[in-house]
Recover the amino acids of this structure.
């Protein structure tokens, strides 16, 4: 278990959706959702990931010969958010007005947090999730020579605001 405060919204605690999946047409074929009829509005999202690693790897993070893994991860996450629609086929390209990635060394790993914002016709959750995910993958890539057992865990949407579906805040973990 990590010692960083975490949050979750487990499947058993979620209310079932009454809607349908939006990325399929009536014949069941994948499609991009048409957002042309929606008004642009301010959208924000925050996501996180946790990289679990041994104390030995944490101790040598500052001396990595490839550079500071946490700073490289931060930049990789920002760059990845800007390319989200290139990697996720039905994701709309968005004009990001803000993206930030932070990392924090914890007792048994590294916590990654990302924030994204836009004024657009659709949400920015995927960009926040992409930033956190790629930042975590970058830490793994830069540290894997020391330990192949590093684990990327708990990639989650923490919060989102704006849009038709309204605001969302992940519920704290039950301990």
């Amino acid at each position: 278990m990590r010692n960083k405060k975490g949050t979750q919204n487990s499947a058993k605690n979620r209310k079932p959706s009454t809607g349908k999946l939006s990325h399929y047409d009536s014949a069941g074929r994948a499609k991009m959702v048409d957002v042309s009829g929606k008004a642009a509005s301010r959208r924000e999202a925050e996501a996180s990931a946790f990289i679990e690693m041994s104390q030995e790897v944490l101790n040598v993070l500052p001396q990595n010969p490839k550079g500071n893994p946490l700073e490289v991860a931060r930049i990789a996450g920002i760059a990845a958010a800007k390319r989200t629609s290139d990697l996720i086929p039905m994701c709309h390209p968005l004009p990001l007005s803000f993206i930030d990635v932070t990392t924090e060394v914890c007792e048994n790993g590294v916590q990654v947090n990302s924030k994204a914002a836009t004024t657009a016709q659709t949400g920015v959750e995927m960009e926040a999730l992409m930033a956190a995910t790629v930042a975590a993958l970058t830490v793994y890539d830069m540290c894997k020579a020391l330990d192949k057992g590093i684990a990327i865990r708990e990639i989650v949407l923490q919060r989102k605001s704006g849009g038709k579906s309204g605001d969302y805040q992940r519920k704290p973990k039950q301990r």
Summary: The beta strands are 41-52, 96-106, 109-120, 151-161, 168-169. Residues 41-162 form a domain with the Alpha-Beta Plaits fold (CATH 3.30.70.640).
